[in-house]
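Hey team,

Filing this mostly as a record. A colleague (T.K.) asked me to run one chain through the structure pipeline before their review meeting, and I want the input and output archived in the tracker in case anyone asks later how it was produced. No errors, nothing strange. Just documentation.

Input sequence:
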Amino acid sequence: MKNPDLSNGKKGSLICLGIFFAVMVIASIVAENVYYAGLPSVVTTAVRRDRLRATSHAPGSIGFGKETAKLLSPANFDSVELLVQTGARVKPGEKLYRFSTKEVLQEKIRLELAALQLEKQNRTLGNTQEDGLQREINGLELEELRGRIASLEALAEKEGVVSAIREGIFYAAVQNRAPLYFEQEIGEVVSNTGRAYFDWRMSAEEGRLFHVGNEVSTTITVKEIVDEKQVEKEIPFQARIAESWREGQDICFRAWIGEDVTLGMEEGDSVTVTCNYTSPESYAWVAPQSAVFLDGDTGSGRVYVLGVRERMYGEEYYVTPCQVEVEYRVGNYVALRNFDADGEVVTFSTMPLEADMAVKRMGEE
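Output structure:
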């Protein structure tokens, strides 16, 4: 016959054991909830890898390469008569200035006399080394004199008038009727070479994308008059950036237009320049920019990469910091260097993050 006291004792022990385990489970659940509730909530974004592609629109202006022809006095003259005003556009054959025909002929005769004297001296020189060197010097001087004499002969035939050889802008370097000396600059004619370029400027942030030597896919928007109406015309072509310089907070660029591109434009005409750029290398891109926790204004900082690890009660999220450098900012995106991880990075956290810190996704509380 069973002892009723013993059976009751076993039942009591089992009940106590059950209560103990139930309390432990409840305590663990409560502790887990308390632990989870204390974790920082984070928002994440996926990292994508791609080349940098940027499109920039900027106002610009058309210019042309220049060729300058210096105009020099062929001799010492008492005066010169300017026939066009400085800054005037001249065409080939247009008269620029006039020397006195009398002065031109006088100078020609004077040089011819000097040449005769040198030739006479050469005939009196002997065969010594000193005489040989003197003969060489005289020969060089005679060559120069004969060239100047020929130039004056041609000038006399034109009655002392000097004309433009090519189209351009004439700039006078002397005053009308001013005395001149040999090879003094009288003026210059500045001509377009026929090859055009365009200049444009960007903010320093945008301008970082473009460098001298880069090829850019470019579209110039020009305005034309068609049937008495102003219309816009787009001219696409490839160009290579030839120059860059700073002006204040902006970066300015110049690119030459290919000789096969016809613009039908004048120097100084305004254009809209659209430049497309694709980087030769790929970058890690994240958005928004708050994904990078910057160290001041250094351009360096950290991103926190989201990971998953096992715990006693299942998996949990945690973060690992990674040092990075910001290469570019385009819109809301940031291109990073020194970042090879994949997956997701934190863009927002309710608490300051630390290495290996456990976190939870916002909205999964």
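Quick notes for T.K.: The mean pLDDT is 81. The chain has four helices and 18 strands.
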